[in-house]
Design a protein that fits this description.
It comes from Chryseobacterium polytrichastri. By secondary structure, the protein is of the alpha+beta class. It has 2 domains: about 140 residues, Alpha-D-Glucose-1,6-Bisphosphate, Chain A, domain 4; about 150 residues, Multidrug-efflux Transporter 1 Regulator Bmrr, Chain A (Alpha-Beta Barrel), CATH 3.20.80.10. Helices cover about 30% and strands about 35% of the residues. The strands form 2 sheets. An 8-stranded antiparallel sheet has the order 8-13-15-14-10-11-9-12, with helices on one face. Strands 1-7-6-5-4-3-2 form a 7-stranded antiparallel sheet, with helices on one face. It is elongated and about 80 Å long.
């Protein structure tokens, strides 16, 4: 019995010492600032923060969990917008609000986590560094914690900073794909031959061999496009602004062959393990391309391809694969909208 009394006294003393140290030496709430820069203009960046549907796609707090369920409430962007979330796997839930907005300059968030009635307050400021670069500054104020929970304040800032680092990496990929798509759409001049330098790409897709009969070939493309797109968006959970336009790579002059082999893939930012053996990654090296944008029947693309090949021969350039980038989703019995790129070299 005496032994248990001694243990109880020791526990009380230690508990008291812990409570006293937390009370006198650890703040009940914490305030800190984090700064980051990103190589995109402020209007592009701000729209990813003030639209909560965009925000939850790249913010690691929400994106890192596969079991989280999010409800969005109108208005979906700007002051007054809000979400609620439940994550049964991690046993957490909460609500998030945008309380103030000064377009392209400032946002104020409130985040209520679990049953805590006091919110985490986050002011985010956006400062243009240049036409193509933005500084983002987070001013964070955590809610007051009871004496027993104040130990959490020792790692709050590190945890928040780690979340921002991971979030910024994803945001950079999202904006990169979005800006690339916007630029491509703005640069379209149909049936005009241009010269472009293309950067390296990493594609996740599928290798295919099929008949070159008119209807069979295009139907096969549509089927495999849907297969790759569904795998990336449904199985991998990627959103449209997280990847580039789908690309089909094939021999430039195989339109004359009875059988056609091609690779159809979607550009992604990094390689990872793929559990479905039907899909694989393919790296595409930087190239110089002769380019034409084409809109019409899929069979009609042959004339544009021939123009690219004739141009290469006239310039005494050797040529390799042709890439067909689908600006719009290919669908049966509908015209295609695509970019044709013939890689050329001396």
């Amino acid at each position: 019995m005496r032994f248990f009394k001694i243990i109880a006294i020791i526990a009380i003393v230690l508990g008291g010492a812990y409570a006293a140290s937390m009370y006198y030496f650890v703040d009940e709430s914490k305030s800190f600032t984090i700064e980051k820069e990103i190589d995109y203009p402020v209007d592009k960046v701000f729209s990813q923060f003030n639209n909560l549907q965009n925000f939850t796609r790249w913010n690691n707090f929400f994106k890192s969990s596969t079991s989280i369920d999010i409800d969005y409430y109108t208005p979906y962007e700007g002051q007054g917008s809000s979400i609620s979330y439940v994550d049964p796997k991690n046993d957490t839930d909460g609500e998030m609000f945008i309380r103030y907005e000064n377009p392209n300059k400032t946002l104020r968030y409130q985040l209520f986590e679990d049953k805590n009635e006091n919110p985490t307050l986050v002011d985010v400021k956006f400062k243009p560094v240049s036409a193509e670069k933005t500084k983002i500054i987070w001013y964070v104020h955590t809610p007051k914690l009871s004496v027993l929970k104040r130990v959490e304040n020792f790692w709050t800032e590190d945890r928040f900073a780690e979340n921002i680092n991971k979030s910024m990496a994803t945001l950079k990929n999202v904006l990169g794909n979005k800006v690339e798509k916007d630029n491509q759409m703005a640069a379209i001049k149909y049936d005009s031959l241009m010269v472009e330098k293309e950067e390296d790409k990493l594609l996740l897709g599928i290798n295919v061999s099929t008949s070159n009969k008119k209807d069979a070939f295009y139907k096969n493309i549509v089927m495999n496009y849907n297969k790759v797109y569904n795998y990336v968006t449904m199985d991998l959970g990627k959103k449209d602004d997280e990847f580039g336009y789908p690309i089909m790579i094939t021999d430039a002059d195989n339109y004359k062959d009875k059988e056609v082999s091609y690779f159809l893939g979607i550009p992604l930012s990094k390689k990872f393990g793929v559990t479905d053996n039907n899909f694989n990654f393919r790296s595409v090296n930087p190239t110089e391309n002769y380019v034409m944008y084409y809109k019409g029947t899929y069979e009609g693309r042959v004339k544009a391809v021939q123009q690219l090949i004739q141009k290469a021969k006239k310039d005494e350039m050797r040529f390799g694969d042709i890439r067909q980038t689908f600006i719009e989703r290919p669908m049966e019995d509908q015209n295609v909208n695509m970019k044709l790129s013939l890689s050329v070299y001396k």
